[in-house]
Amino acid sequence: MRRKTVKKSFAVICAMVMLIGLTACGGADGEKSAGASEMTGYYASTSNVSFLSAYPEHTFKQATFGVQNIETFADNTYVLTNTDTFYSGALEFNDNGKYDVVPRGASIMKFYGTFTEVDEEGLITLELSKPTAVITNSSYSAGANPIGYVNTKEWTDEMGTAVGGEGPALSAEKYLESVAFPETSVIVDASKASFDYIVLTGEAEASH
């Protein structure tokens, strides 16, 4: 067990998002290089915290801290980055702002697609297409092996085995289908360049 503060946890999350934003340029094919198309927008989401408890079957509890950012480009492509960090443990928040946790790693997913935009009275509506490519790097582990790095545009047999878990290996198309969200509208406050965190549910999951 290590002693962490809520403030420090959010600082780590924000630092990760800033790093991703500064180092990543992506297009609808997941292969956009720096300078390939001019960036037209960079928007950050509000924070999201979700909790998972396996009680009473197990004592396992988990908190997930999530943030997102969207980059838009002049060629009408977007990159949506979703960053989740995971902690398990007692997760009992005290008055001093400290709690005992076990860090479980992080998952960074970058979704690539196309978009349309409407700007009206300070509100920007982004219509994001269903993603056409995904890059994931996940160190999350709660008893299973981390997925690691996967890229639907540079797929390997090892990636298919990693995302397949205890089941059969997946193809790039099957993995993309499992994580890609349907066409989604995002309302951006232009004055703050921010939007409300959006729950990204894959179409395969939503159909159940």
Structure description:
The protein is α+β, with helices and mostly antiparallel strands and 208 residues long. Helix content is 18%, strand content 43%. The chain contains 4 helices and 11 strands; from the N terminus they run βαββββββββααββα.
Q: Which stretches of 5+ consecutive residues score pLDDT under 50?
A: 1-28, 204-208
Mean pLDDT: 80
**Number of distinct helices:** 4
**Order of helical and strand elements:** EHEEEEEEEEHHEEH
Based on Cα principal axes, name the global outline.
flat
Separation, N- and C-terminal Cα atoms? 37 Å
Report strand %.
35-45%
Class by alpha and beta content: alpha+beta
What portion of residues is helical? 10-25%
Largest sheet: 7 strands, mixed, barrel
Sheet with the most strands: spatial strand order: 2-4-5-6-7-10-11
CA-atom Rg in angstroms: 18 Å
How many strands? 11
Question: Helices, strands, pairings?
Answer:
Blueprint: E1 2-5, H1 6-23, E2 39-45, E3 48-53, E4 61-73, E5 77-88, E6 98-120, E7 123-128, E8 133-138, E9 148-151, H2 157-164, H3 172-179, E10 184-189, E11 194-195, H4 203-206
Parallel strand pairs: 2-11
Antiparallel strand pairs: 1-6, 2-4, 3-4, 4-5, 5-6, 6-7, 6-8, 7-10, 8-9, 10-11
Q: Which descriptors apply to this entry?
A:
208 residues, alpha+beta, seven-stranded mixed barrel, 11 strands, 18% helix, disordered N terminus, disordered C terminus
Brief synopsis:
Helices cover 18% and strands 43% of the residues.
